Amino acid sequence: MKLRTRFAPSPTGHLHIGNGYSALICQQWAEKNRAELLLRIEDIDHTRCRDEFVPDMLEDLQWLGIVWHGEVRHQSDFLTDYHEALDRLQRIGVVYPCFCSRSRVRAEVENMGLAPHASDEADPYPGLCRELDMPQRKKRMQHEAFAWRLDMAAAAKAVSDVLAWRDSHGHHHPVDPFSHGDVVIGRKDIGISYHLAVVVDDAIQGITHVIRGRDLAASTGIHRLLQALLNLPDPVYIHHELLHDEHGVKLSKRHGALTLKQLRDMGANPGHLRDVLLDSSLGGAWSIEKFPDMGLA
Ligand code: GLU
């Protein structure tokens, strides 16, 4: 079987060196394993993604020496695929409409004596709408905005097997559906969610190995569960370390990490950047001082 991985950035800004590192890790793995590397633009979230970043992203990746196989898949062109998957989850009765606002969830979490997380996404959903009966749901769906949540108890029952995701060492990591709470599978604003789109795409694109940053490892259990519910194949997962600065802080767009475009515009040498990023003795620690001969420090 042909091995296949993918790099799947979201155009919420220019690619930063952490993204470049991730793309290089994917490519290095693909070369070593004679696998194909696919490129996917994860742009379903029209509230955060902007089309104008995409041409620069492709150019940045080419500049860095990333060579992908075949056509680039843009998620926004395939919304019907994700809606079909959501329909299937509705048919097997493992999702329910949730009318709660973020502030409502937050207030309830506080009421329960739990400390809310910094990000609303990470708050465990206290299950308010799970208990609504069918007539109540139907009535409210007519005039209120709603999200679709995965009913973890129903989902766990629907997949009778004990689930686990596999890593590249052949280890099996058990999935505990309840540890995730009733996650949103269809967002109120955009109709679907990252979790749903990513498992559908990995299946459609025949991805055998998902290589991505450790920050996404917490979602892998949800993805494995969705694969089981939707009868999709389960790829092997590899979570690489994240690039961090000399103080150990993860590099991110939010923290103003240097972008590949900035480096490109400054005339940086991509071969040198590749060597620096893939130098395992760095242990993922990035600093501009690693570029003394580029005049950037
Ligand atoms: N689009 C996600 C990101 O940019 C990556 C998703 C994945 O690799 O599963 O963080």
Mind sketching the topology for me?
Blueprint: E1 4-7, H1 17-32, E2 36-41, H2 53-64, E3 73-74, H3 79-91, E4 95-98, H4 102-111, H5 134-143, E5 147-150, H6 152-158, E6 164-167, E7 172-174, E8 184-186, H7 194-204, E9 209-213, H8 220-229, E10 236-240, H9 260-265, H10 270-278
Parallel strand pairs: 1-2, 2-3, 6-10, 9-10
Antiparallel strand pairs: 4-5, 5-8, 6-7
Helix pairs in contact: 7-8
Describe the structure.
It is a single chain. This protein has ten helices and ten strands. By secondary structure, it is of the alpha/beta class. The chain has two domains: 4-76 and 195-294, Rossmann fold (3-Layer(aba) Sandwich), CATH 3.40.50.620; 80-161 and 176-194, Alpha-Beta Complex (Glutamyl-tRNA Synthetase, domain 3), CATH 3.90.800.10. The strands form three sheets. It has a four-stranded mixed beta sheet. A three-stranded parallel beta sheet has the order 1-2-3. A hairpin with a 4-residue loop joins strand 6 (164-167) and strand 7. Helix 7 (194-204) crosses helix 8. It starts with a strand and ends in a 19-residue tail after the last helix. Residues 8-10, 42, 198, 212, 216 line the site of glutamic acid.
